[in-house]
Amino acid sequence: MGGRAPSLREQVIQPIQNPIEMHETLAHVVTKLSRYESYAQDFERAFGSGEITADKIAKALEQFLLTRLSFDSKFDRAQTGKAKLTAEEERGFQLFTTEHDSGNGQPGAGCFHCHGGPLFRSRDFANNGLDSMFKDLGRYGVTKNESDKGKFAVPSLRNVEITGPYMHDGRFGTLEEVIEHYATGVKLSQTLDSEIELKHGIPLSQEDKRALVSFLKTLTDEQFRFTPGPPPSTLLSAGKPLILGGSFGETCRCTPSASRVKGNSRHLLQNISLTFS
User: Fold this and answer.
1) Burial of residue 1 (number of CB atoms within 10 Å: 0-12, 13-18, 19+)
2) Domain map of the chain by residue range?
């Protein structure tokens, strides 16, 4: 979130090693995968050699993620006339794309400033008012620029309904909590985004808050809604190892999936795609 990874290939291996995420080492992952002949065969098919390395794991995960394209949400279908938003969803869209102007009596949430365009995101880093004092310095950790303290990458809102918890530290569990933060919970600091600072919170009615959440849910592409897998004990008894256990291994679920996967990574990724509960 602070922009530490210069490429997707480098990004995919960071959560594996992060102590507050999977708390694992790449060397140990390679060791665990290497215990199973089936994985050596999969690497052989994918890369021409059965040797398992951290670089090959990163390449396979990168290629898999590049096939994950979100373009079939209700909102997308509504844009082409294949679906119709409800009145509440349409109201939420209007709030999302309208500037708030209390002086002229114009209600709006102005979300489009940071979450605009077809991806509902920007390429910027921003401080959205979570804290006055920063435990995590965010972008500053990379640039060492004082003006970057407390700034984090602005994410896409596509599939936001199913990608919680929210914010860089997961402090909000629901979209309702996120909306409430922008309405009443913004904290001032030297690097607070100017658009948010000017508003001093967005005065929304409860009805408008519900409408915003309803609209955000129209950005869900159902192919990305995962079903939790069986418990670890079932996987182990079936001879299907938990690949990236680490200190948080008890939460891992192996979920074989080759849908929409292209090229030689298909066989490998059937075995190492993971979801978490």
Assistant:
1) middle
2) 8-69+227-276, 74-220
Phi and psi angles of residue 29, each rounded to the nearest 5 degrees, phi first: -60, -45
Which among 178, 138, 133 has a CA at the least distance from the CA of 160?
178
Residue found under tokens 């509902």: 120
End-to-end CA distance of the chain, in Å? Answer: 21
One-letter amino acid identity for 246?
G
> CA 45 to CA 96: how far, in whole Å?
47
Rounded-to-integer distance, Cα 263 and Cα 185, Å = 47
For the chain, percent of residues with pLDDT exceeding 90: 65
Closest CA to 272 of 70, 64, 67, 68: 64
185 secondary structure, DSSP code: I
| Model confidence band, residue 20 (pLDDT cutoffs 50, 70, 90) | confident
179: tokens are 């909306």
Q: Provide the pairing of β-strand 252-254 with 152-153.
A: unpaired
Whole-model pTM? 0.74
- b (16+ CB within 10 A) / e for 136-160: eebbbeeeeeeebbbbbbbbbbbbb
The whole-angstrom separation of Cα 235 and Cα 209 is 42
Kindly calculate the radius of gyration of the chain based on its CA atoms and give it in whole angstroms. Answer: 21
Q: Which CATH class is domain 74-220?
A: mainly alpha
pLDDT in tens, 57-115: 999 999 999 999 899 999 999 999 999 999 999 999 999 999 876 656 667 898 999 99
Half-sphere exposure of 258 (CA within 13 A, CB side): 11
